[in-house]
Every structure is written in structure tokens, then in C-alpha cells.
Predict the 3D structure of the following.
Amino acid sequence: MNSFEIRKKFLKFFANQDHQIIPSASLIPENDPTVLFTTAGMHPLVPFLMGEKHPAGRRLASIQPCIRTGDIDQVGDNVHHTFFEMLGNWSLGDYFKKEAIEFSFDFLTNKKWLNLDRNKMAVSVFAGDNDAPQDKETKKIWLSLGFPEERIKELTKKNNWWGPAGQTGPCGPDTEMFYWTGTEKAPKEFNPENSKWMEIWNNVFMEYFKNNQGKYKTLTQKNVDTGMGLERTLAVLNNLSDNYQTDVFLPIIKKIEELSGKKYDDYKKEFRIIADHLKAATFIIGDKYEIKPSNSGQGYVIRRLLRSSIRYGKKLGLPDKFLIKLIPKIVEIYGETYSYIKERENYIINIIDHEEEKFEKTLEKGLKEFEKGKNAFILYTTYGFPIELTMEIAKEKGVFIDLEKFNNELKKHQELSRTASVGMFKGGLADSGEKAVCYHTATHLLLAALRQVLGSHVYQRGSNINVERLRFDFSHSNKMTEQQIKEVEEIVNQKIKDNIPIICQEMSLEEAKNKNIMGVFENKYGQRVKIYAIGNFSQEICGGPHAKKTSALGNFKIIKEESSSAGTRRIKAKLL
Ligand code: GLY
């Protein structure tokens, strides 16, 4: 079975069960500013899982391209990807556990559909904890379908809970379906630690909401959210232990063999990273938002993916500009399913061509400098080496990179270049630096005040500081009223008057996440993060630097409030 057949079968099966087929959404989340990419098929459906009425009804199915940069370091093994397709079906307050499990089981094992061997299946269910009880009902359902007790494992939240897709949102216990991929007979007992048991489908029973205090509240609407990885399922169906041998990868792999004269079997890791990363970059660039390689946000992810592919290409001895020769293969695989990839082929090639050219120029020089022992920061500023690339090379060569030092230098560099870009120094570098630091602290107060006045949907979307003003973009759709602007100003000025000390604390990223402290979590390098707290009023993950006390800020005044882009407002403010 190939990718076209499995997509078609999946949608047909659920259409037969009265599901409406909905189109896939953009790779850039439209409802969730807390993450950079759409990470699952349910991600675009969050408002509807929360009870908003979906125009297509209460039973939906789709095929959704997803990006998970969190898995980037595992790419190179046989199953992890940054880009993948997810087949999903949803019940928005319609059917629940029994029907969802029966649908999945029927689709997987019925001769008419995937015809997988039920004797090679195993499942896991949620064992229960302080947040939610043990999922006895799900276990009963699997038993009723003839599953032996030994093939059902009860696991904790770490394994059998899914969501939220961002920092807050709907989530719940899940049941995961595994398939035996070993050549020997499937063991009687299911051991989830054995990687020959491949997870292929996940049914999530979304009846909780994780709020920004990290608490789980029950939702009034009980939903089902399922996700089946297309690449893995294809591999299983074709008795392959390697996703890269399926038809969504093979044409790219063959082309790399042709261009390099090397065999995939001898250089699996390099082939896999190039194929995966280039696919992800192609889809992000081809998305309707037309994001280009850059030094921040989604653009930085594109740059990192492309630069990493180029470096692995060099290892294979691939010629300059090999990436663009692979794009037609990606279009061949996906152009029919995702027509925009075909329509934008030339545009994508142009962007990648430009980025390849730019990086080729500095790569060789940069690698030489690395050999000479130049530090990560110089490689970043002078040679455009993403820090992750430097880390990768360092790991291979057994060299230690001091990430904290890198981050500190980067912060200093950013403050200074912001300050320098104004071009007009009022009183020496030190003074200007201090002013910029005060503006930085003011953005934290502003964000907390905006959330207090407008609501907890407000997140930072962008920030730019110089010695004359701050500019702050945030998620909010409507123009702020005079009254709201006044309230925000008053709150910030009151906090300045209260002369609150700004306290910096370090903790692990995990701990910060659990405390629901704001900050962009994706692509944070290093395990420990700094949290800046202004009393109980504001807490953010941030590299600093900040004023010591709020009284240093002076008088806060909003100069302008305007639209920045759809769903994003922009404030310009001064400290007088
Ligand atoms: N949303 C379900 C999953 O990603 O597995």
C-alpha cells in the first residue's frame, strides 16, 4: 500500500461513519501563539474542542502536515521526523471511548481496510494519578474486543496522556495502539520498552483543560482526538522497519544516491537528516504565510534545517547547490495531495537556492575557524553558524561548548546592536545601555498589565527596544479602547511607583513549564533557564538583563496602539 492509498482509505472509512472531511490547516498555528508550528491534527481544532461550534459538524476527519522541532535531535533514527503527516478523526462532544476504539480497531484490522494482524497488536491505557482517575472503561473496551490482558499495559501520564498542543488547552488520557514489527513471532506479553512494538495510533479522550496555573479542569464537552502517523503506518503495512524506505521518502533517497554516488545503506544517518530536514523546510516555505529563512521564529527553524542539511550533504560529498535538485522529488511525492507545494515549486526553489548560496560561502571558512578553536559566538555572528550546528559539530568532535557563555554573549550583543541601531547616543554607551535595560523591564510589566486588562489570550508576539522607545507586538484581535490603554498605563505606573525589586531565578525548563511561566519554549537551548520575576505581578523566562528595581523606569506612556497583522496588535511606548 502506498501513501496515496492509505490517505484515501482513511478518509473514506471515516466518511462512511458520517465524518466530514476537513482540509488541512496551515503549518503556522492561527489560534495558538505559544508555539511556532502546528504540532498535531487537533491543534487547529482547539477552539472547537473547547465547545465552539464547528461549521462542518461534530464528526471530523483530516490529514494534517505537522512540524515537531522537539524531535529534531532524534532525526537520523528510523522513525523520527520533524515533518510528518497525521491522519486524524475527531468527535466534538459526539461519540466517545467505545465508538472511537471500535473505529480504530476496525480500520486497522478489517480486511476491507488495512487488514493488519490483530495478533500482532498491543495497547496501552492510562493508569491514573492525582489529576485524573485510572481509565478502567478503556481497558474494558479493549478486553471486550478480545485483547488478552498481557497485551494491555497501564501506563502513567508520561506515556498515556496527550496535550495540550501549546502551553494551555484541551488534553486528556489516551490509549495507544502498537504493532509488532519484529521478524520473529510477536511476544505474548506487551513490553512498551521494546522498540519493535511500534506505536502507530493514538486515541485521546479530551475531557480536561490545562489552564495557565497548570491545573486540570474537566471540560463540559467530551471529545475524541486521534492521531495516526502516516509514515510509520505505511512502513508497518509494507513490512519495513524503516520509514525512509516508504514512498514518501524513497524518491528523495534515490536522488541523493544518484547525486552522491554513495549508498543509503552505508550512510543512513546523513541521508535521513537531509531528506527529513529538506521536506520540513519545503513545507514551511511553501505555506501560505510565505516565511523566509531568518534569525528568529519560524524563519530561524528553516535556516537551521537547511544549514544542517547542507552540512550533512558535504559529508556525503554532495556538490554545491544539491538541495534544490531534490525539491522536484518532494513535489513528486506531495504535489498531488498538497497542491500548493506544486504551485509554489519555483518560489520554494528560489528561496532555498538563495539560502544555499549564502551558506556555502561561509561554511567552509567557518569549519576552518572551528578547527582553529574559534568560539561558538564568533561562529554565530561572523559565519552565520546556528548554535545548534556548532553544537552538533562539537559533539562529533568531542569538543565542549559553554552554552551559558554563548547565551550571555548573545544577549549582550543583541542589547548593544539594538542600542547602536538608533544611531544617536544621548549620553555614552553605558547610559544608553541602562535605558535599553529599563525598556526591557517595561515590556515585562506591559505584558502582565495587558493580560490583566485584556485577558489571558494575550501573549508576546514580538519585541523591539531601543534607547528611545519600546515596541511590543501581542496577540489580540481588537483595537484597544482609550479606557483600556489608560488602565494599562496606570497599572504599569503603579508597579513602577511600588518600587518592586526584579528577582532572577534559575530553574530547569521542565520546572518552568510546570509552573506555567511564560516564554517561548521551542528551540531553547540548554536545560536551565532564567526566570525574571517582578513581585507576584510578572514572571517570564528571559535571558535578561533587567533593571534592579522598577523605580528606575520613570514614567510609562503609551504613544501608539495599532494593528501589526491579523490577530496581532502593536504598542509603542516611552519611558519619560
Ligand atoms: N493529538 C494526538 C497525537 O498527536 O497523538
